[in-house]
Amino acid sequence: MTLDRSDAEGEIARVVRDVRNWGRWGPDDVLGTLNFLDETKRIEAAGLVRRGVTFSLSQAFDTDGPQTGWRRRTNPVHTMTDTGVDAALGNQGFPHGIGGADDVIAMPLQCSTQWDGLGHIFDHGMAWNGRRSEQVVTSEGDLVTGIEHMASQLVGRGVLLDVARHLSADGELEDGYPITVDDLEATIAAQGESARVGRGDILLVRTGRLARAKREGWNGYAGGPSAGLSFTTARWLHAKEVAAVATDTWGFEVRPNEFDEAFQPLHQVVIPNMGLTIGEMWDFDQLAADCAGDGRWDFLLTAPPLRITGAVGSPVNPIAVK
């Protein structure tokens, strides 16, 4: 697929016509493509566990994170409300010498490893499944497709496509590189049968952008240039019927975007129109090394969001089990 860089509006509209899933699971649906991830897929995923080794795919949640304050996104602030000092001084008011520690955290829900909920992005004032955006998300939160509906859904077969390892000698794609369907298919072919992608899978795509940030510092990781999925992958994602997609980047899609004037056009297509759940800022590096070592690129993945009523996104600590 070739893109007319000067016609973002037209290109988005044409792709939306081909991939829109409104009504596919009925007028009341709140899960979108997570409907593809059913009991059969979870049984298949459970059978992938052979060694019992686990990998956390989460970045840290601390003040050293990537956020710069754009649109009020800040790094987490962790505060102790009770400490060992309080216990040692005996000022906690507990009997018999018992003491304790407590803490709180304040953070945007999309400041580190996270899921985008279906209420996160709108297209011309429309939310997932053809609902008016103002009737879905208000100051009280997402009244229809809140992230809490996904709390029991995101357990299934994960598939890692290490596109960076396949295309680049150093395992890191250049910033601004758009990952195409050909790149995805070539990576699947190179990685073999365990990398096949299909209905109900949770697709993970590694660009190497986080690995570079670990080595060189954040340097625009949050919001800056990065490799990512090309806008031209939308029809492929739709045809594959994947349940969800996550990347090791801030924006999931390539940045700068592929049009002269656009902001996150792939988001605009896949979230409100396709109903696709997107994960961002995941850490695949240790998992990728293990997959390359044993030649197996699929695994049991458990990645439920926090059950935050009405949220349009959620922190997550995804666990891959091989």
From TrEMBL:
Q: What is this protein called?
A: Cyclase
What GO annotations for molecular function exist for this entry?
Answer: arylformamidase activity
Q: Which residues form a coiled coil?
A: none
Q: Which domain of life is it from?
A: Bacteria
Task: Return one Gene Ontology term, BP aspect.
Answer: L-tryptophan catabolic process to kynurenine
